[in-house]
Amino acid sequence: MNTYIQKIKSHYIISTVVLLVVVFVGYKIFGSSGTKAETFTVKRGDVIQKVIVNGNTKAVRNVDLGFETNGRVSMSDVSVGTRVYAGQLLASLDSSEAQASLLQAKANLDSAQALLDEMKKGTRPEEIAIAESDVTNAESSVSSKILDAYTKADDAVHNKVDQLFSNPRSTNPQFNLILSNLQLKTDIISERATMDSLLLDWKNSLGDTSKDGILKVKINLTKINSFVDKVASAVNTQTSNVDLPQATLDAYRLAIFTARDNITGSISSITTAESALISAQKELSLKKSGNTPEAIRSQEAKVAQNDASVKNAEAILSKTRLYSPLVGVVTKQDAKVGEIVTPGKVVISVISDSDLEIESNVSEVSIGKVTVGNDVSIAFDAFPGDTFDGKVTYIEPAETIVDGVVNYKVTVAFNKKYPQIRSGLTSKLEIMTGVKKDVLVLPQYALVSKSDGYFVSRQQNGNAVEVPVTVGLRGQDGFVEILSGLVEGDVVNMPASVK
After folding, report:
1. Following DSSP, what letter does each residue of 321-388 receive, concatenated?
2. Residue 171 has what pLDDT?
3. Statement: residue 76 has pLDDT above 80
4. I need a surface site. Which of 3, 176, 304, 483 has the fewest CB within 10 A?
């Protein structure tokens, strides 16, 4: 029994010795190598800090245009996608009455100014006789111009245009040309039905050379001119076919062109003759009444009043026209010829196609790094492999909430124009928020953060010594600038958690 117990004790002693040997060998083989610290030698390098976000291109300028007055659209020569220049006429309303009012206002101003000039010169008896003769001649000229205008207007309607109608002088005239623009055809038929009564009323007052009579003549000519313009638009859309041979179509076009030219010439000649008559009448009145200082001051006031009337008439006329305020592309076009529009309704939109910028949202975590003037490297999904240069030009002071997160809008401008860039493209922005060159660098994960600052484990004479460091710029690649605490060549132990 004792022998058996001694054998068991011997067995345990031997096992213990073997176990201790294995542990010792294992420590020598594995333990010492496993605790060998990873190190980094402090060196010089560049630290680049970036903020990376996504953005979208948008036009720097985007304008919505609408008329300031109501009326019927008479012209619209642009469509969506049309490139336009600054000051280009995009659309207009029927402005026949506004144009006539402007012509009248300008004539009154010219007459008032001419009369004022004469008043300042003084009057002689023989000048009165000459002035009376001038009035008579001017009245005769106006009467002659009115008669000529009536003749040409009657010819334009009854000869040049009526060949395109069936039963033109009936209460139900029919326009013979086929038009896809039904509104235009309706307008032509409707206006033709009014032409005969207009011409008859005009004929009965041909001898009226008064101010109101002349204005009525000009309004008649403007209405007829508008009617002929619509017919011209209809004829110009036609193409020759079996029912409309080219020779016939050419004859129609020549006739309508002649009619328009005659009406336009009549408007001009009557305006000129009227101006001459008004001037002659004012001059005669001035010469007969004498040129006292009070009369001159009164005439100066009339000149100013007429000048204001011209400006007012010009303002009214301008409200019937839409001009592009910028070079760009039409993105909306709701101004259709023949339609009635209301004031303030947006009918045309234009964006600048060459002046683009990028708008992006930067989180509150990163916005403190971004400043106006930062360089930006821009990449687009639409142009893989290409990069474009830009700069931060604006940081919106107020926050923007995106999916419950506070962000700030940042605007980036291109350094130059890139013709291939379009509005609405998605982009990746690398905003260069800081660059330090040839500075001491260390991996960020070598730093140990404590309540009183950052520390690293530096090797010194074979031992690890904890030293405080001051850090600067943190780079996008994981390195950080060391401002103090280390020198180039120092060996730093990496924390065990990053082995």
Report:
1. EEE-SSSEEEEEE---TT-EE-TT---EEEE-SS-EEEEEEEETTTGGG--TT-EEEEEETTSTT-EE
2. 85
3. yes
4. 3
Q: How far apart are the first and last CA of the chain?
A: 56
The structure tokens listed for 467 are 């030293």
Helix (H) or strand (E) holding 62: strand 62-65
pLDDT at 269: 94
The predicted structure's pLDDT at residue 121: 74
Distance of alpha carbon 237 from alpha carbon 177, whole angstroms = 10
* Amino acid letter, 289: S
Closest CA to 76 of 86, 65, 63, 68: 65
> What's the pTM value of the predicted model, to 2 decimals?
0.39
Contact 73, 335 (CB under 8 A): yes
Distance CA 389, CA 374 (A): 11
Give the span between the Cα atoms of 134 and 276, in whole angstroms. 9
For residues 283 and 118, the answer to whether their CB atoms sit within 8 Å is yes
Tally helices (H) and strands (E) across the chain: 8, 23
CA distance 363 to 109: 63
Residues in CB range of 278: below 8 A, 6 or more apart: 107, 108, 110, 111, 211
pLDDT of residue 86: 85
Q: Which amino acid is at 406?
A: V
CB-based contacts of 349, cutoff 8 Å, min separation 6: 62, 63, 64, 65, 330, 331, 332
Task: Find out whether 52 and 307 touch, Cβ atoms under 8 Å.
Answer: no
Centre a 10 Å sphere on the Cβ of residue 492 and count the other Cβ atoms it contains.
23
Residue 62 reports pLDDT greater than 70: yes
Tokens of 295: 């009369």
How much of the chain is in helix, strand and coil states, percent to nearest 5?
A: 45, 30, 25
Q: List, in sequence order, every residue forming a beta bridge with 480; answer none if it has no partner.
A: 442, 474
**Tokens linked to 314:** 């010009």
Which is nearest to 493 in space by CA: 462, 453, 472? 462
* The pLDDT of residue 248 is above 80: yes
Per DSSP, the residues of 152-202 read HHHHIIIIIIGGGEESTTSSS-EE-S--S-HHHHHHHHHHHHHHHHHHHHH
pLDDT tens-digit series, residues 407-436: 999 988 888 878 888 888 899 998 988 888
The 10s digit of each residue's pLDDT in 259-301 is 999 999 999 999 999 899 988 888 888 777 766 778 788 888 9
**204 SS3 class:** coil
Tell me what pLDDT residue 24 has.
38
Asked if residue 392 lies in contact with residue 411, where contact means CB atoms within 8 angstroms, the answer is yes
Strand, coil or helix: what is 411? strand
- 211 with 273: CB under 8 angstroms? no
